[in-house]
Amino acid sequence: MRSGRRGLLAMAFYMGFAAAVIEVLLIREILVICRGNELIIGMIFSSWFLGTYLGARFNPKRSDAALERRVLAAIALLPLVMALSVYGAHAARLVFPLTVGTFYSFAAEITFAMVFTAPVSFFVGFYFPPLVSLLSREMKERSGGTVFYIESMGSFAGGMAFSFLLVDRCNPLAILSGLLCAAVLIIAGNTNRKLAALAVVPLAVVFLSGMIETRIFAGVWDRTHSGKLVHYQRTRYGSVAVEASGGTVSVYGDGMLNYTLPDRYESRGLFHLVNSFREERRSMLLMGSGPGSLLHNLLAAGVERLCYFESDPDLWAATAAFRERYYPVDDNAALAVFREDLRHFLSASPERFDMIVCLPPSPENIMLNRFYTREFFSLCKKRLNERGVFITSLHGFSSYLSPERRDFIASIYRAFAGEFPSHLKTSGEVMYLVGAGPDATLPRDADALVARYGRSLPLRGEGFDREVVERYSPDELKMFFEGSHLRYFDSVMALSAAEENRDLKPGAYWKNIVLSAFRENSIVYRLIRGFVFLPAFVIIITILALLDIRRRHGADGLRRGLIICTTGFISMSVMLVLILLYQNAHGLVYYRISLINALFMMGLTLGSMFASRVRTARPPYILCAIALSIGLVAAQARFGAGAGFWAVLVVFAFLCGAVFPALFYSGAQDDYMASASLLDSMDHFGAIAGSILTVMTFLPLLGLHGTIAVNLLLVLPACAIGFVKFR
Amino acid sequence: MKDPDALFGRREFLRRGGRALCLTAFGSQLLESCSDTYCQSGAAYYVKPAKMWKKLGDGTVQCLLCPNGCQLDEGERGICRVRKNVRGSLFTVIYSRISAAHVDPIEKKPLFHYLPGSTAFSIATAGCNLSCKFCQNWELSQSNPEDLSAEQITPEDLSRRARASGSRVIAYTYNEPTVQFEYILDSAAAARRAGLRPVIISNGYIRPEAGKMLARSLDAIKIDLKAFTNRFYTDICGGSLRPVLDNLVAIHGTVKWLELVVLVIPTLNDSPGEIRKMAAWVRKNLSGDVPMHFTRFHAMYRIQNLPPTPVSTLERCRQIARDEGIRYSYVGNVPGHRWENTYCHNCGKMIISRSGFFHVQNDVRNGACPHCGAKVPGVWT
Ligand code: SF4
C-alpha cells in the first residue's frame, strides 16, 4: 500500500483542511459547557496546540509501511475522536450534574478543555513526521517544507470553507460526517478502492444530522436547564437557544443567558431612569438591553428615532416569533434595528444621537472589553449631539467591594470618568453611569432629578406597559442613588491603583476573570492573580521542552527548536494583536475577522511554499524580516489599523511561514522524520506559550505596545542564533 | 538503551521536570498566601471570648451557637470562619469588626410590618455558617475577616453612628449576623439604651437556646426560610432544614416581630407542593400573622446563568400562602407589583402602598386598618 507523492500530499491537504475546521468547531462546541472568557478560550487553544505538540513529539521511527498506517489512522481517527469530543462535551452535564444555573469551576472547565481538545489535535501532530518521512523518499530535504505548505494550504481552504460556507449551512455532525466521508475516500484511494463504499455510512449521517443534532441538544438541555427548549439554532457567532418557563422565554447565546421576555417589571426602574434623562431628546441609540420592555416603552414614550443594536446579527431573526408574542414592534417606523457591531457602526457612520444607551454584557473577554474602554466612551461622546447624554452600565455591588471587584470596576469607571468628567452614577448591583455631552447639563443630584422628572409624570400615551408606568412615583428613582452606597463607592475607588481600561491596554476583561475565579474561591484564582504563576509556569515548561530536545537532538536541534518555538510564539501572539487592533479600529465584523484568519493562513502558505522552493531563504534573514514586520505591526498599533493593515498581515504571515521550511532544509540532513517531529512539535509548543501569555499576561499587564515589544525582544535572540549558526 | 549524548536520562529528566513544575505551582501559591492578609493576625480588640461553647478535653472545644456544632482543635476556626479556638477557649474574632455600614430603607430588608418608611443603619462583618450558592453578599459571608477591610465600631459607637445617620433602626444584615452573637448582644443592649431598635436579617440557622437569647435582645427578626426541603438546604446551602424550623418555633413569641422571606429560585424551590407545605407549617407552628415574602431570584454568586423567577410563579406562591392561611403574603423584588402593597386582611383594602423601597405610603393608623379598624399585626410606632 505505498502511496504516491500525490496521495501523500492529498493527505497533508486533508489534514490541514480538517484541522482548521475542527479547531473552530471544537471551540464553539466546548463553550456548551464552559464560559466563553479568555481564560477558557486560551486554554482550549493551548490544549489544541498541546495535543499537536504531543502528537508530533511522541512519534517513534518505524518502517515505511508502519508510518503510512500511522498517517491513515490519523486521517480516519481525527473526525471520529472529534465526534466523541463534541458529543462528550454535551454529555458532560449529564455525567457531572450541576446545580441549575451554575457553571463548573474554572479548574473543571480547564480540565474539560484539555480532555476534549488535546486527544483530537493529537492526530494533527501525529501524522506530520511520518508523512514527511514518507515524502522524503522522493523530495529529500524539501519534504518538510512541502508538507508544511500543503497543510497550510489545506488550513487556508478549511478556514475559508468553514467561515464562508459551512458555518451558515451545516451543523457539527454534518461537518464531521463530511470529513469522515472524505477520510474514507482518501484511505480507499491509497489502499483498497473497495473501501470507498464505506463512505456511504457517513454520507447518510450527513442527511440525518439535523434531526440527530436537535434531539441530542434538546434532550440534554431539558435535563440541565430550568425551562423547556423551544428553539435552537446555530449562528455564525455560536448557538442561540430559547427556553420557555412559567410564561416567559429566555434567550441564550452560546449557553449564556442573554435576556428573558417579558421583562416588564425588570425594566420598570431602568426605563424611568433612562426616561428621566431623556427630556426632549428625540433620537436614541440603544444596545445591550434586549428587545424587550425598555425598547418597547421608549418607543411608547415618543423617541422619534431609535436605533437598536443586536450583538449577534442572527439573534433578532432567531427570536422573532417569541419577541413578537410580547412586543410587536418590528413595524414601528421609529425603530431601526441594526444587526451589526456597535463599534463598527459608530466608527463608520457620521450619525449623531441625542442619547446613547449602551448596556453590553460584562467584559468577560477582549471582544466585550471593547465596549468598556476609554476609546469606546470617546467614540460614543463624538456621536452625541451637543446636548446629548450617554448611559452605560457597570457591575456594581450589594454592600461591600472586595479588592478584586474594586479594581475591576475602577478600571472601567476611570475610563468613563476620564471621558465624561461631568457625570452621575447610580448605586446597586448594576450601576449606571450617565455622562453629559459638551453642552448638556445633568441634574445636580438625585433630588434634583426626582423633582425634575416628577414634573413630567404621569406618562401618557398609548403603548406603555402597565407594569412599567402604573403607580409610578419619581421617588422610585431614589433607589438608584443610595447616598451611603455612593459615598462608600467613592471612598473605595480612591484606594484602587487600577489603570483605566483602554483599547491599547485592555485590563478590565482580565480583572473580570480574576473576579470570577475569586467568586468560586478556586485554586485557579490563587494561580492567576498577580501575573506570577503563568509566566513562571510557561518559562519552566519551555526550559523542560528545550532540555528534552537537547537530550534527543543535540545542540543543533536545540537551536532549531528554539528558533521555531520563538516563531510559533510570535506568530500566535502577533496574530492576536492584529485581530485586536482590527476589532478596536473597525469593530467586530464576522467576515472580516474570518478574512484575517484566512489571509494569515494564506500568507503562511505562500511563505512556506516560497521557502521550500527557494533554498537561499535562510533563517536569520527571515527572522530579521520578521523583526521588521513586527515594527510595521507597531506602526499599525500607533495609527489604528489603517491603510496597509492587510499587507502587514500577509507579509508577517508570509515570513512566519517561511521559517519552518528554511529550518527544515538547513538541518534535516538525513533524518527527515526526526527533524519534522522536532520542528512541528516546537512550532506548536511556541504557539501554546504565545496564546497563553499574550491573552493572560501581556495584554492585561503590558498592553498592546508592550506585547509587541515583548515579541520584538523575543525575535532578536532568535536572529542572533540564526546569524551565528544558520547563515 | 541510554543515549550517550544525552545530558541526563529520561527518568532523571522527568524527575527534574516534575520537581520544577511542582515548585512553580506551589511556590507561587506559597508566596501568594504569605503575602495576603490571611497570615496576619487580627487586631486584638476584635478578639473577644465567645459565648455558647463547651470544652471537650485535650484543648478541643465545641461551639454550640449554631447547628454546625463545630469541634475545634487548638488554632482552628469554625465553618463560619469567625470563631476560633485559642489555647483551649473559644473566641470570636469579629467583635466590632465592621466591614460594611450603609443606611437602607427598612423595606429593603425586607421588613414590611415594622416601622414602614424608616431607615436602618445596616452593618455587617465577615462570615456565615451556611454557604448558599445564591448569596447576595458573598464577598462578606464567604470571606475570612482578615481578608476584608474593616473598621472598629464599638457597641456605643454603633448607636452614635446610627443616630447621626438619622436612622431609628440598627440592622445586623448582609452577612449572617448571628455569627457575631456576642457583639449583637452588647450593641443591641446599647442601642436600646439609646432609644434605637435593633433588628437582624438572618438565615435562622442557630440553636434554639442562642436564638432565644438573641430574640430577647432584638426588636425584630427577619428570617430567610430558604426552602422547605432538606435537600435544598444540604445541596445548595450546606446546612439542614430542621434546625431552622426549630429555631423559628423558639423565637416566635420571644421576639416582638418576625417576618419570613422565601427567595424563590426556578426549579430549586418553587414547586407548588413545597410552598404549600411551607405555608401550612408556618400557619400551624408560628402564626398566620407572620408575613411571608416570596421574592424574585436574580442571577447571583454561583447561580449566574438562571433566568429570573417568572412573576407568575411568585404570584402563585403568594396565592398558595394566602390559601393556607397566611394573612400577609407578598411578592418581592418586583418593584411596582401590586402584591408589594399591604392589604388589610379583614376588608381587603390597601393600607400601605409601596413602589420600590423608597416610595412608601403608610395609612395604618394606631396599628389598625383606616378603613375597617381591624388590628394589623406589626410594629408601627
Ligand atoms: S457559629 Fe461558627 S463555629 Fe459555631 S458552630 Fe456555627 S459555624 Fe461552627
Overview of the molecule:
The complex is a heterodimer of chains A (727) and B (381). Chain A has 727 residues and is an alpha/beta fold. Chain A has 26 helices and 11 strands. Helices cover 65% and strands 9% of the residues of chain A. Chain A has a 7-stranded mixed beta sheet, sandwiched between helices. In chain A, α5 (128-139) crosses α6. The longest helix of chain A has 54 residues, at 533-586. Chain A is globular and about 90 Å long. The radius of gyration of chain B is 24 Å and the shape is globular. Chain B has helices at residues 10-35, 138-141, 155-164, 181-193, 208-217, 230-237, 241-251, 272-286, 311-323, and strands at 48-49, 53-57, 60-63, 71-72, 83-86, 89-92, 97-98, 100-105, 119-124, 151-152, 169-172, 197-202, 220-224, 257-264, 292-296, 329-332, 342-343, 350-355, 359-362. Chain B has 2 domains: 28-92, no CATH class; 98-362, Alpha-Beta Barrel (TIM Barrel). In chain B, α3 packs across α4 (181-193), α4 (181-193) packs parallel to α5 and α8 (272-286) packs parallel to α9 (311-323). Chain B is built from 9 helices and 19 strands. Chain B is α/β, with parallel strands linked by helices. At the A-B interface, β4, α9, α19, α21 and α22 of A face α1, β8, α2 and α9 of B. The complex binds iron/sulfur cluster (SF4). Iron/sulfur cluster is lined by residues 63, 65-66, 68-70, 78-80, 83, 129, 179 of chain B.
